[in-house]
Specification:
Blueprint lengths: L10 H15 L11 H8 L3 H13 L3 E4 L5 E4 L4 H18 L4 H14 L1 H7 L2 H14 L6 H17 L4 H22 L5 H16 L3 H34 L1
Antiparallel strand pairs: 1-2
Length: 248
């Protein structure tokens, strides 16, 4: 592992990148103990605080874990897809909020990604996935359910559909779409939507999943996308009208 002292990039970032590359390539394997801070400091010809900062970067990415004691140190961590979900969701949420992605663009991406797993989900879904979807539909039908709770249930419903594909790579990639895009879209459209209509559409999708009808699942998601886009148009129009009214 080497770094370039002439590179303008932060030295701790270079060290973290070098160690990360070694982990990805297999030069460092899961549960292997990294050299000590002193050894890394000597190897990279930098100060120990610089090495310490590099290790903090790696720990923040869950690439390494630290243990105290005589047999302690920094060890290569095994990352699970589930543990990486939160980072994917956080990154997706930040990208959407910081780059002013339009509602239409986010909605298009979110449903295109979910439709991509419709076939596998219809084929592989388990009784547990179906039970979760039915439970969320029942929850969404309850009178007095808050908008926040309805949104959370909506996310859980779609997450069960995605996880029904039985493909952890797809679930990871879709984590940002379902758990970052969906709540943002829900909060924009919640005031304009007809809950009973959304619940009915969710029911159609769950029925198609039960019957393992991939085409019907995809059609149901397409219909839901169209409904969501129309709700957004009405919601934005209402907000615009309200602003104009308050300005006069």
């Amino acid at each position: 592992m080497k770094i370039d002292p002439q590179n303008p990039a932060d030295l701790s970032a270079q060290i973290a990148s070098a160690i990360r590359d070694a982990i990805v390539s297999g030069a460092l394997i899961v549960d292997q103990r990294l050299p000590s801070e002193a050894e890394l400091s000597e190897q990279f010809e930098v100060s120990r605080p610089t090495v310490r900062e590099a290790l903090k970067r790696l720990a923040a990415q869950s690439l390494i874990r630290t243990q105290r004691g005589a047999t302690g140190g920094a060890f290569v961590n095994r990352i699970s897809f589930e543990e990486a979900y939160s980072q994917q969701i956080t990154t997706s949420t930040l990208l959407l909020s910081m780059n002013a992605v339009s509602f239409e663009t986010a909605c298009e991406a979110r449903y295109a990604l979910e439709r991509a797993c419709a076939g596998l989900s219809a084929k592989r879904r388990t009784a547990d996935h179906l039970a979760t979807m039915r439970a969320e539909i029942h929850r969404q039908s309850q009178p007095g359910l808050t908008d926040e709770a309805f949104c959370a249930s909506d996310v859980a419903f779609h997450r069960a559909l995605v996880d029904g594909a039985g493909n952890p790579v797809m679930s990871y990639q879709l984590a940002g779409a379902v758990e970052a895009m969906q709540p943002l879209m829900n909060m924009i459209t919640f005031s304009a939507r007809d809950r009973a209509r959304i619940v009915a559409m969710h029911g159609d999708i769950a029925d198609a999943m039960t019957q393992q009808d991939a085409a019907a699942v995809e059609a149901g998601l397409t219909a839901l996308e169209h409904e969501t886009q129309q709700l957004a148009i009405h919601a934005f129009a209402a907000r615009s009208a309200a602003k104009q009214g308050s300005a006069t």
